[in-house]
Amino acid sequence: MTMFIRQEAMEKAKEIQIKADEEFAIEKSKLVRQETAAIDTQYEKKFKQASMSQQITRSTLSNKTRLKVLSARQELLDELFEKAQGKLGGYTKDKGKYQEICKGLILEGLYMLNEDKVLVRARKQDYEVVRKAFEGTKEEYKRNFDREVELQLDEKNPLPEDSAGGVWIVGGGGKIDINNTLDERLRLLEHDALPMVRQKLFGANQNRRFHD
Predict the structure, then answer these.
(1) What's the CA gap between 184 and 143, in Å, rounded?
(2) Cα–Cα distance, 171 to 173 (Å, whole number)
(3) I want to staple 154 with a disulfide (CB 3.0 to 4.6 A). Which of 67, 119, 173, 189 is the partner?
C-alpha cells in the first residue's frame, strides 16, 4: 500500500513538473517574443529617425548648394549686363553709325505715335548727330507712309549728360513719350532676353515644366 501511494505521488509530482516546465517554456517564449518585438519596434523607430535625419541633411545641403549655384549665376549675369552697360558709350563714338542708330530709334517712335509733329530729346553733345539724323528719318517716314512729319529738337529738356545716349520721343502735345535711350533699350533687353541668355549660358532648366 505504501509503495502504491509512493508511486502515485511520484507520478503526480512528475506530471506537475512536466506541466510546470511546459508553462515555463510557454511563458519564456512569450517573454522572448515580447522583448524581441520591443527591440524591433525601438530599432525601427531609431532607423526611421536616422533616415529622416539623413533626408533633412541631404535636403539642407542640396538647398545650400542650389542657392550657391543660383547666386553665382546671378553674379555672372549681373557682371555681363554691367559690361554691356559700360560698352554702350562706344556706340556714340562713331558718328556715322550713331547717326543711323538715332535714325532707327526716332523712326520706331514715329511709327508708334503716328503723329505729324513730335519733339525729340537728346543729350547736348548729341544735338548735331540727331539733327543730321532728322533728314534721313523724315525721308524714310515719307517713303513708308506717304506723308510729311515735322521733327523738332527739344533743347529745353536735354537728356542727362551721363546717360549712354539715344533719344526720347514726345508726342500728343507732351502727354505721350517714348523712351528710346540706349540705357532703356539695354534695360528692356535685360528683362526680355534674360531667359534666353540664361539658357545659352547655363542650359535649359530641367525643373521647369513650361516654356514660352
Answers:
(1) 28
(2) 5
(3) 119
Distant-in-sequence, close-in-space partners of 97: CB < 8 Å, separation ≥ 6 = 91
Three cell numbers, residue 68: 550657391
DSSP secondary structure of 159-172 = PPTTS--EEEEEEG
Q: Residue 47 to residues 40, 41, 52: CA-CA distances in angstroms?
A: 10, 10, 8
pTM value? Answer: 0.57
| Closest to 111 in 3D by CA, of 88, 139, 144, 155 | 144
Cell numbers 532607423: residue: 47
Sheet strand arrangement including 166-171: 150-153, 117-121, 166-171, 176-181
Strand-pair partners of 121: 168
Helices (H) and strands (E) in the chain, counts: 5, 4
Say which residues have a Cβ less than 8 Å from residue 130's Cβ, sequence separation at least 6.
102, 106, 120, 122, 153, 167
